[in-house]
Amino acid sequence: MSTAKILIVEDEKLIARDIALTLEHAGYEVVDILSNGNEVIDRVPKLKPDLVLLDINILGSIDGVQVAEYLHRYWQTAVVFLTANSDESTFDRAKHTGAYGFLIKPYHSRQLLTTVENAILTHHNNQSRLANLRRNITAALPHELNTALNSILGLSEIIATEYNNLSDEEVLEFISDIQSSANRLHFFTSRYLFFTELELLLVNPDRVSIMTQMEPVLHTEQALLDVLAEFKQKSDREFILDICDTNLQVPLEFFNSLMQELIDNSLRYSIPNTPIVISTAEHYDYFSILVSNQTDSFDLDSISSIGAYVKSKSLFQDKQGSCMGLGIVYHILSLLEGAIDFNFNNSCLEVKVKLPNKSCVLQLD
Fold this sequence. Notes:
By secondary structure, the protein is an alpha/beta fold. It has helices at residues 13-25, 37-47, 64-75, 88-94, 109-162, 168-202, 207-212, 220-234, 252-268, 324-336, and strands spanning 5-9, 29-34, 51-55, 78-83, 102-104, 216-217, 239-242, 248-251, 276-282, 286-294, 339-345, 348-356. The strands form three sheets. Strands 2-1-3-4-5 form a five-stranded parallel sheet, with helices on both faces.
C-alpha cells in the first residue's frame, strides 16, 4: 500500500501542527491543514485524502458531523473524529456517520498513530472487498448471459430445422425450456441493471434529493406481504410472521428489493421443509427486520460486517456465484445508512437488518 494521504481539519493551529509533525515523522503525507467545514468540501475533490482527521467541533456554518456525512456519502473517505468535549447529542450524531473512531484530546502520539493505522487499514480492506465484489459480478456476466442465450438459440434451432420430425409434446417441451431460459435471462439482466443503477446513485451528489422524491414505504406490513406473495406462488414453504405496520422515509423499491434478497437467501440455504421466520419491529431510532431459518452450517467468523459479506461463498450468491444479491444488499444499505448483523446458534441463522427510523411526511391511514 502506498503512502497514505491525510487531511487534518482542526481550528487550533498548535494542535494541528503537532499532529502533522507526528504523522510526517511516521511516514504519512499530510496534504493540508484546514480549519472549517466549508474549506473541506471545497478542497477534498482536489486533495483526495485517504483519511481525514476531523475536529468534531470545527468552526464555520458546517459542523464536523455534517462534514463527515458528506465525506462518507459522496467520497467514501475514511474519517476519524478529534474531540475534547462534546455534548451527548453530537456524539450520537457522529456515531452514525461511518467514522472509524474517536480520538479524545489530549492524546499521546502512540494513540494517534495506532488509530490512524487501524482506520486506514480497515478502510482499505473494505474498499478492496467492494472492488472484489464488482469483479465477481462482472466476471459472471458472460457466463450468465451465454448460458441462457445458448439454450434459447439451440432449442429454437432444433424446432426450426426438425419441426416436421418432432411430436407436439416435444415441441411444447422445447418451448417451455426456451421460456424458462428467457425468464432467467430477463431476471438476471433486470437484477444487473438495478445493481448498476444503485452504483450510479451511490456516487451521485444529488442522491439524497433523488431518493426523497421516490415513493416511500407507507405501510411496511403490506409491502412485506406483497413481496411474500410472489414467493408463495413459487414455494410451498411455511412463513411464520410477526410484523408491525409503520411508515418509513425509505424508497419502496429499495425496501422491496432488500426483502426479496433476504427471503430468497433464506429459502435457498435453509433445510428443506423447515419454516422461514420473519419479524419486524419499530424502535426509537431504527426499524428492524429479522429473517431466520434452519441451516446445516454457517461460518460466522468469516463475516464480521456487511462489507465482509464478500468472503462468504454461500450467502447471497446466484448458483454460478455472481454475488449479485450481495451487491444489491450492500448498496441499498449503504444508500439508506442501514446496518446488518448475523447470529448463528444451534443450527439457526438469523440475519438482522436495521434501517434508520425516519417517518415520512405522509402518515398512515
